[in-house]
Amino acid sequence: MEASLNPELTNLSLEQLRLRRSAKWRYYDEDVLPAWVAEMDFPLAAPVKIALAEAVELDDTGYGYPDPLGLAAAFADFAKARLGWEVDPAGVGSIPDVVNGLTSVLRLISKPGDRVIINTPVYHPFFGIIEELGCELAEVPLVDGELDVDAIDAEFRRGAVAIILCSPHNPMGTLPTEAQLGALAACAAANGAWVLSDEIHWPLTLPGARHVPFLSVSPEARERGIAFVSASKAFNLAGLCCAQTVTASERAAELIAKLPFAAAHAGHLGLLATVAAYRDGAPWLDDVIAVLDHNRALLADLLAAKLPEVAYAPPRAGYLAWLDLRPLDLGEDPSEALLERGRVALNAGPTFGPQGRGFARLNIGTSPALVEEAVKRIGEAVGR
Ligand SMILES: Cc1ncc(COP(=O)(O)O)c(C=O)c1O
Questions:
Q1: For strand 344-345 and strand 33-34, is the pairing parallel, antiparallel, or unpaired?
Q2: CATH code, residues 2-44+282-381
Q3: Beta-bridge mates of residue 173
Q4: Is 266:94 a contact under the CB 8 Å cutoff?
Q5: Ligand 1 atom closest to residue 101's alpha carbon, by position in its atom list
Q6: 329 CA distance to ligand 1 middle (Å)
Q7: Which ligand 1 atom sits closest to the C-alpha of 97?
Q8: Best of 106, 198, 237 to mutate for ligand 1, by most ligand atoms within 8 A of CB?
Q9: Ligand 1 within 6 A of 118 CB?
Q10: What is the pTM assigned to this prediction?
Q11: Ligand 1 center–CA 129 separation, angstroms
């Protein structure tokens, strides 16, 4: 089954990985298998490595200047080729990273006390963004992984100024439908609210699923929406701090033009790597997607064999698996027991919102062997 997978992505050495100094590899003790933060273990795409090596060779580590590098056109071509998404390069802007961009844009459109919607359980820094700006959290939980557009509409009617949409969704790995996004755009527009659409995981949409870019669904979506994208998840470039905003209306572009200087610039190495990834990274990305597709099915098989009571719906995009561990009776935060007794680090479910109690998030952006090792350790933690 693994014969068709790229061996460079499946034969990973744990010893080699432990030489990395990123958060994933340094936060926990040496004997812990880290399967938490959203970084992948695969070697970088060759075009990205070449771009970075070239920059170092040229001592080219100054400030970034995205336009001459062709960042906007590279993203537009990538979006068109991968998704059929028509992006006007004039609407592509640079930001240091998605969380920074979401924070800075939300600061422009909200004032303390304003309500901001998120769909829990969700990527935990969204809570921090809303708190940092003194806004009020308007939690509209997903229902079976799906957007509850009626409940979102009710929040907009109560005065919520914006929603931070997570599409594809982290940690559930689900994707909203075109109809849901169209309805969301209509109710946001009717209430003068904004949709900040975090689409950072879309290049990792897996076989059988279709990502619908929010800005593609309707004129209302283009009026009221801003998309946040990046090569950082799909090409493992988070440490290079480079992301993009996408706008498709004058109203949204005017907002982005008001971003403060520090919030509208990405790092030079990040820009170089991102252009290389968008321009020449597609074959590597296809190989990664094949491994993730394999791993999500492998995880289902391993859990069925070893921990059949654990509920898991394979992600439809990305490399994060949301595990319902409640039947194992490990308390509100099962990741604590898994770390202590199994020496495997998952993300704590409750950090994603109250719906995460009894859950944990497992990172499967690694080799099949390390997915097996993670499940083995989870099993050991509960005496299997
Ligand atoms: C949904 C989502 N948005 C944003 C980020 C972080 O992106 P950045 O590093 O560009 O801030 C992540 C990282 O895992 C994520 O899952």
A1: parallel
A2: 3.90.1150.10
A3: none
A4: yes
A5: 11
A6: 30
A7: 10
A8: 198
A9: no
A10: 0.98
A11: 12
Residue 272: name the closest of 39, 42, 71, 59 by CA: 71
Measured in Å, residue 241 CA sits from the centre of ligand 1 at 11
Q: Which atom of ligand 1 is nearest to the CA of 243?
A: 10
Q: Which fold has domain 62-279?
A: Aspartate Aminotransferase; domain 2 (3.40.640)
pLDDT tens, per residue, the chain with 384 residues: 456 999 999 999 999 999 999 999 999 999 999 999 999 999 999 999 999 999 999 999 999 988 889 999 999 999 999 999 999 999 999 999 999 999 999 999 999 999 999 999 999 999 999 999 999 999 999 999 999 999 999 999 999 999 999 999 999 999 999 999 999 999 999 999 999 999 999 999 999 999 999 999 999 999 999 999 999 999 999 999 999 999 999 999 999 999 999 899 999 999 999 999 999 999 999 999 999 999 999 999 999 999 999 999 999 999 999 999 999 999 999 999 999 999 999 999 999 999 999 999 999 999 999 999 999 999 999 999
Q: What residue ranges of the chain are covered by domains with CATH 3.90.1150.10?
A: 2-44+282-381
In terms of C-beta density within 10 A (0-12 exposed, 13-18 middle, 19 or more buried), how is residue 32 classed?
middle
Question: Which atom of ligand 1 has the smallest separation from the CA of 166?
Answer: 1
What type of residue sits at position 373? E
**What stretch(es) of the chain map to CATH 3.40.640.10?**
62-279
Distance between CA 95 and CA 256 in Å, rounded?
Answer: 10
